[in-house]
Design a protein that fits this description.
59% helix
């Protein structure tokens, strides 16, 4: 897939298309809805380990599902949905790496509470936790630090079933849950910034090794993501 297309954000119509597919056209009881998928992809985008699509894509369709492609008979539709998910992931990465200022644009739920609209990131946070669980040992060093625990606290309060004794009190009302939800964007950006030195060091080592040569599947992708080609634009081509 062309890198320019790969990083293009989904249009509102494409988001609705993906949302409808995940809600109504996946025949598995534990497939991810859109807000859970978005949290899941954010965890993969900022995580300490690059997880190959062959590991993270099947979990979208169900906890015990093993196939890369969605469980539908129409091959064109299957390729289309995988393309949308791939673009959603790469647009998240592009937003984080924007030289004009990193940002996240979470696709989580809002609902009417009396006369006001409130954010509720509970399902999004469940997806983020699922992304962490794919390589939970690699997240342990961050969780061992005081800042790391603070950054992850609102996500874990909303997304884990048994986070701690204060969880019920802090998530009881819509206002409580909104307060935690609105802490998440800054926390995600802080975790992303925290991991930048390591990613930049990896980028520089790969560039030094591959300067002037052909970009192999294990070399740094030339789109500037800091990932190996086979796990970035090369992976997008494989998914198609």
């Amino acid at each position: 897939m062309d890198p320019a297309i790969l990083n293009a954000p989904l249009s509102d119509a494409e988001i609705d298309e993906l949302d409808h597919f995940l809600l109504y056209e996946v025949d598995l009881g534990d497939s991810m809805p859109l807000d859970m998928l978005d949290g899941y992809l954010h965890a993969l985008a900022i995580g300490p380990t690059t997880v190959h699509p062959t590991r993270w894509m099947p979990r979208i369709w169900g906890e015990d599902f093993t196939g890369m492609m969605p469980p539908v008979q129409d091959v064109d539709q299957s390729n289309r949905i995988v393309s949308l998910i791939t673009r959603l992931f790469h647009s998240i990465v592009a937003n984080l790496e924007d030289p004009d200022g990193s940002m996240i644009v979470p696709l989580w739920s809002t609902f009417q509470d009396g006369d006001r609209q409130r954010d509720d990131a509970r399902i999004w946070a469940c997806g983020f936790i699922a992304g962490m669980n794919l390589c939970e040992d690699d997240w342990a060093p961050l969780l061992a630090t005081e800042p790391g625990r603070a950054w992850l606290r609102p996500i874990r309060l909303l997304g884990e079933e048994d986070f701690g004794p204060e969880q019920d009190a802090l998530t009881r009302t819509p206002a409580d849950r909104e307060k935690l939800s609105l802490q998440i964007p800054d926390a995600v950006l802080a975790m992303y910034q925290h991991g930048l030195p390591q990613r930049r060091g990896l980028h520089e080592r790969h560039v030094a090794r591959s300067m002037g040569g052909r970009v192999g599947r294990n070399d740094l992708c030339r789109c500037g993501s800091g990932r190996k080609s086979k796990r970035c634009c090369g992976a997008g081509a494989q998914l198609q």
